[in-house]
Amino acid sequence: MDKNTFATLPPMGWNSYDYYDTTVTEERVRANADYMSKHLKSYGWEYIVVDIEWYAHGAGSMRNQFQYIPFSKLEMDEYSRLMPDPDRFPSSKDGAGFAPLASYVHSLGLKFGIHIMRGIPRIAAHDHCKIYGCDLSADQIADPSSICGWNPDMYGVRDTKEGQLYYDSLISLYASWGVDFIKCDDICNTNLYRHNPYSAQHEIEMLSSAIARCGRPIVLSLSPGPALIEKAWHYETHANMWRITDDFWDNWDLLKDMFHRCELWQNHVSQGCYPDCDMLPLGYLGKGFGEERLTRFTRDEQRTMMTLWCLFGSPLMLGAEMTKLDDWTLSLLTNEAILAMRTPDCRPHQICLDNQKAIWTAHSNQTQKTYIALFNLSDQTSSIEISLENLSIQVGSFSLLDLWNGQLSSPASSAIRAILPPHGCVAYELCCHS
Amino acid sequence: MDKNTFATLPPMGWNSYDYYDTTVTEERVRANADYMSKHLKSYGWEYIVVDIEWYAHGAGSMRNQFQYIPFSKLEMDEYSRLMPDPDRFPSSKDGAGFAPLASYVHSLGLKFGIHIMRGIPRIAAHDHCKIYGCDLSADQIADPSSICGWNPDMYGVRDTKEGQLYYDSLISLYASWGVDFIKCDDICNTNLYRHNPYSAQHEIEMLSSAIARCGRPIVLSLSPGPALIEKAWHYETHANMWRITDDFWDNWDLLKDMFHRCELWQNHVSQGCYPDCDMLPLGYLGKGFGEERLTRFTRDEQRTMMTLWCLFGSPLMLGAEMTKLDDWTLSLLTNEAILAMRTPDCRPHQICLDNQKAIWTAHSNQTQKTYIALFNLSDQTSSIEISLENLSIQVGSFSLLDLWNGQLSSPASSAIRAILPPHGCVAYELCCHS
Amino acid sequence: MDKNTFATLPPMGWNSYDYYDTTVTEERVRANADYMSKHLKSYGWEYIVVDIEWYAHGAGSMRNQFQYIPFSKLEMDEYSRLMPDPDRFPSSKDGAGFAPLASYVHSLGLKFGIHIMRGIPRIAAHDHCKIYGCDLSADQIADPSSICGWNPDMYGVRDTKEGQLYYDSLISLYASWGVDFIKCDDICNTNLYRHNPYSAQHEIEMLSSAIARCGRPIVLSLSPGPALIEKAWHYETHANMWRITDDFWDNWDLLKDMFHRCELWQNHVSQGCYPDCDMLPLGYLGKGFGEERLTRFTRDEQRTMMTLWCLFGSPLMLGAEMTKLDDWTLSLLTNEAILAMRTPDCRPHQICLDNQKAIWTAHSNQTQKTYIALFNLSDQTSSIEISLENLSIQVGSFSLLDLWNGQLSSPASSAIRAILPPHGCVAYELCCHS
Amino acid sequence: MDKNTFATLPPMGWNSYDYYDTTVTEERVRANADYMSKHLKSYGWEYIVVDIEWYAHGAGSMRNQFQYIPFSKLEMDEYSRLMPDPDRFPSSKDGAGFAPLASYVHSLGLKFGIHIMRGIPRIAAHDHCKIYGCDLSADQIADPSSICGWNPDMYGVRDTKEGQLYYDSLISLYASWGVDFIKCDDICNTNLYRHNPYSAQHEIEMLSSAIARCGRPIVLSLSPGPALIEKAWHYETHANMWRITDDFWDNWDLLKDMFHRCELWQNHVSQGCYPDCDMLPLGYLGKGFGEERLTRFTRDEQRTMMTLWCLFGSPLMLGAEMTKLDDWTLSLLTNEAILAMRTPDCRPHQICLDNQKAIWTAHSNQTQKTYIALFNLSDQTSSIEISLENLSIQVGSFSLLDLWNGQLSSPASSAIRAILPPHGCVAYELCCHS
Fold it and tell me: C152–B144: do the CB atoms touch at under 8 Å?
């Protein structure tokens, strides 16, 4: 199966991390899925993704000391494969895994995704556990010098035939549950290692092969960032999305920096290949981190984020607890004109970027639509402009449709100009008079 | 003018450097142009490029000590613009510059190119020379801390309005001569500088602007490499070709390494945007370097080079003294089936690369043609193969056209396989039975 | 001559830079020398150093654009050697150079120093000027690819016999003037260069050789920092002092950071070999920079600086305009108990360093004196302590002499403890009861 | 206890690694100790060191796949402390540990040393084992993200009070056995980690503290190299010797490179502080690696190695199986004149180093002895010389004692000169005529 057919548009969905950290439960996943099917599905939102350590007993119970409790008990089957913690995911009991939950999500017309850590559980290696369909045991396929720098659960898998068999057995199990989306962590940038931040290249290839053979179209998302631009060709060959940034949160400095990251990756967006700006930290966040709060982004910043993510073609993964979304945030997520920019055919292009402003366009050869977005990156209200000459258009030949408010205007001057609040933006569709 | 319309195919031509170093003369340029028009033009070869230090008196006269004589006399007009050395380029006398030579080249149905060093002559700055159309003098636009690490002629130009005026005046002069191609050096990777190997980014932009305004389509080629992959977007916005390698010569290690460089840049070839594998060191080389010789590449290596450059979509710049080409080399340069792979629409894709072999395909969505090349990178005769499964094709459904010898075959097994000599290759067009 | 006999204690003196930048004049040098001879000489202060661009006409006249005016007129003799600008140093006229000024300084019982830039004037190379005692001209010994990243005056000198002759001629001239101290810049860390921040190693050796042969003991001081710890052995072989930091100014962050730099270099202080913490930005500063001001250091910070510099064994070079010194600052510079720590035999040793505090000791095997200094690096008043066990001394066996206020105390507890103001310190001599 | 009193001369001894790899047995240790006591002890050789994985069952049994078998059985006491494998060290049974073997070594008038890996066994953490004298268990003091890049046995210990208690318990146990020397590995340069090759700084401090308190003088040796020159002050504060190179073997390129490493560390040799050039690969080597062989060094290279190690002041740790030493090698190890250079008071100083030669001197202020060594680093017989002027001595004022052959000569020229075979050397003591 050709992975570029698995996600013909940048994926849109919800991820449990920003609100729940490691503590999400089946009940909360169902509640969020219910919300999405009612309020967001018709706008294209479809993935429900359970993030990190759904297999760890007691996850989150020592949050003041550890995000991930070292050497704690992990739920695992006899073949060294992690299974959902039955305390938090009751329907997974008796070996059912995530099948019942996936089935429920599917029943709502949505898709189901999970997070995994690259590799095989450390405890399976130390206990010499079995591998499905393979004579070797876990100690023989685990690489004791390949670890994650920030999570203690796994060892990397060696680049051998038996290592591939382990990944095959893993994906086969998860496919049998009905998993549609896998976010694999500690793989996009293995930032612990001095000589090679791309030390898990072979594990990306193994995952990709396992998915191609499993009989189910599973979107493959790689974390954490920043992805390595010199490996762009490799991500594009094997994955559907890859994080171009370290963890993104509701902090203006991070959002401002994202313009540089989009600059870097602007020529790497195509069907089935999506540089990933990370989750949208909107609405209520942070409960599992011990600090439930509303997003710290201003409304202008939220619009700036949505505009950039959509024009650039990033996947959209909502970090909010959806059942607490307010109307304003919901409107932000359901603006069809903004979401319409997200076609892989619509190529993003940065016109300028400095400390005060950013200007982007995007053009689709298919629809012939052209978008222009002006961003005020400064801390003061500013006038941002782009000359028509720079856009190769002429005065009087076009109108501008403001995508956020639907207003149409016809600039009479030789530039497109907007007075923008601090960190604010405007996004236009260019409507040429024929 | 849109620079992506200047070179709709990867440029093909001749460059004086590999044979003449700094010593090429007008007479030799004319002789090579004559040869090209007679023997190569009909196959697409068209650029005649005069490489480095055509402005330096006595260039090459101290070759045992210096490639570029420091603090030597440079021919320069009153506006700080370098002019051809009249001793070597007699027709340039009395301010004619390269206009007569360009005119001659054009009369043969070919195009004319020159090499320049980024910046403004150091001596112009020290002598406070004038700038055309500008009140400031050269000392005021030259940046005394921006130098080339390997050539002593120039200072970088400051990122100011007056700096742009200098570049405008330069390109305007060269356009008036009829220059069709500019290879700018010390700009693609300014490798002297610790904190910023892309320190001349603003000079790329100035050159690009000057060309866009000069009224003549001038192909912009940037040197030296290796180009910075994180600036791919910037090269693609401003230039037509950029060197992805340091100087390439007739040495197998360099050729073998080029597979890694092509791997890195494989997704960055498009119309008007060509990652450049550097000149083809074929035929007679090295006279100006004090060691005239035939290329050290074996015939198999020469075919491997041509196959990779063409399938990948690199520009083709011949380094040989053309008037001495033998029939075999000429046949190498005029194989139409091989040259036909060079369409920007034909996207190259590496299937595998290791120390023993490389396998590449290329597919054109426009022509629906698919190419497959197998390369033996080892030092022994080897059998190289690719399974049909990996190519998503089926046994019996296709024939293979060998591009180098025109033979057609129909593999009956589940793989495409070839026995290849050391450093040799085979290139097929895949002909599907409908 | 053995350079380790030139400065048996860390040099103490005055430097024109912090107050005058490039604008110091003979009259101001004399006024400061007069002040030193009257008020500071008896405490060990002795060097009067004229800092950067005493050879540049119009130095400082375009301060809003340039610190060092590019391509401006430099005073130079016929042998490519820079001479004082006669407008600012009238006694230098008619080829006298700095001899008259040096003579005046000597008449006051002080020593005279100058700043030089590594290399040979660029203009000498471009104009093919002569070299004293050598058949080659400046263009033949200048290296066009060796420049300073921040000053446009010079080219580096090639590592050849003739290059050495140039340095010999230079030092010979300066020795004939009576120069006692040379601060050479762009040599300790040539931070422009990617592959080699110690690219002028051969010029350090040439300078060192030239001094050893010139017949006059000239202290050699190398700038700028940070010096490279992996070249410690080389600095120790060839120079008397070398900057362990980039330019130091009256800024707490820089002072706090100096503790890390002293940590790094603590085992590299010995007779004739002094890691240099840079000038003391005290009293009035900054006039030549366009912002005459009193030092921004608090009195506590000033004491902390003096304590660290003296205990560590750094040279002391005063940056103030001395004629404007107030009584308090003068008292800071003339505390004999603090200055007495500065013997090379007195080995500094850091006991601890964290974000809140630093504790240092120093012990002289010769005098058997032991010093202890406690520093409060935090922004709050804090109690800092060190247990006697850590110092290998016993309760009741010793008294403490507070070096800043002369008070004697006998701690009865098992620790030495002090309540210190923000950024403040205390320095004790340990007086053991025999 | 002051660690600088533990080894007043650079330690001399034998280490099991070069011959046995992980496979040394008690019987072989005893045999080598017997040999040393008979043939080498009187020349200063005294340490018998058991190198890596004496605690691992089956160590070396999968040598074709692994040097260190991952996830294999390690002998460990109930307090997470590693114990000797009783199969290979029978006297260690019933909890005796290395006490009986140490006792035997002591009975011969020698000292006993062991190798340890930094940290706590991984299996102790996964199994939540106990820590002696501490309420926490191993999982609570082990850092799951701190591993060795090349050995799978341990996790690093956290920088906490309980972590210190573990190291205290470990050193206390080993001291009770009579251990005199500990070589700790994966600690001098933790080369796995991107951001911090000195990530185990706190573990060096913990080990140093534990030793200072254990009541026994235990020499602390840190591996692997290359040690970080910017941490020289820290090694000097906490350890007795530290490896300045990665593993050294009988390979000329490595030996030639050692001159650069000694250059770097030449000013860091003092009593109790010894930069370590690594073991002497002499005699029979490599059995445990599967390739028993005689050293590949020529006799000239062996003398060069011994001369450099001794003049520089490196520890001397013999890698040979001693019972197989031939007479020539024995004579190399028992040349008293060469060994006499090894006093910490004898300061090494490199005079020159290039690709062809190295010249070193060493001078002792205590004995007033001066040594001069000339090394031919080229592959041809060469004449190497040093002018007397460079040594500040005069013709006719001295004689030279050749340390390797005992001959005395009186050079009549203005230089000391020797014709040396490829990779050979000569070492003189300078005897001044009074």
Answer: yes
Residue entry with tokens 């912002």: C291
pLDDT given for residue B393 in this prediction:
83
Beta-carbon contacts of residue B135 (< 8 Å; ≥ 6 apart): none
Contacts of C205 (CB under 8 A, 6+ apart): C238
Give 3-state DSSP helix, strand, coil % of chain B, rounded to 5. Answer: 30, 25, 40
C144, two tokens: 């066009």
Do C144 and B152 count as a contact with CB atoms less than 8 A apart?
yes
Which residues, 6+ apart, have CB-to-CB distance to A94 below 8 Å?
Answer: none
How far is the C-alpha of C259 from the C-alpha of C242, rounded, in Å?
Answer: 17
Kindly report the average pLDDT of chain D as a whole number.
96
A122 touches chain D (CB under 8 A): yes
Q: What is the DSSP string of C245-261?
A: SS---S-HHHHHHHHHH
**Nearest-CA distance C142 → chain B (Å):** 9
- Partner residue facing D71 (CB), from A125, A149, A150: A125
Q: Are A236 and B267 within 8 A, CB to CB? A: yes
In angstroms, the CA D38 to CA D41 distance is 7
Length of chain C: 434
Per-residue pLDDT tens digits for C144-179: 999 999 999 999 999 999 999 999 999 999 999 999
Q: How confident is the model at residue D194 (pLDDT cuts 50, 70, 90)?
A: low
How far apart are the C-alpha atoms of C363 and C393, rounded to whole Å?
14
Question: Which are the contacts of C95, defined by CB distance < 8 A and separation ≥ 6?
Answer: C77, C83
Residues A213/A231, Cβ–Cβ less than 8 Å: no
Contacts of A42 (CB under 8 A, 6+ apart): none
Beta carbons of A71 and D125 less than 8 Å apart: yes
C-alpha distances in Å from residue A285, one per residue of A321, A328, A343, B69: 7, 16, 29, 66
3-state secondary structure of B50: strand
Write down the residue that tokens 């680049």 correspond to: A159
What was the ipTM of the complex prediction?
A: 0.93
Q: How far apart are CA A339 and CA B168, in angstroms?
A: 42
Angle at B328 between CA B326 and CA B334, to 5 degrees: 100
Tell me, yes or no, if the pTM score tops 0.80: yes
Kindly report, residue by residue over D36-48, the tens digit of the pLDDT.
Answer: 999 999 999 999 9
pLDDT at D345: 83
User: CB contact, 8 Å: D65 with chain A?
Assistant: no
Q: Look at D268 and C266 and tell me if their CB atoms are within 8 Å.
A: no
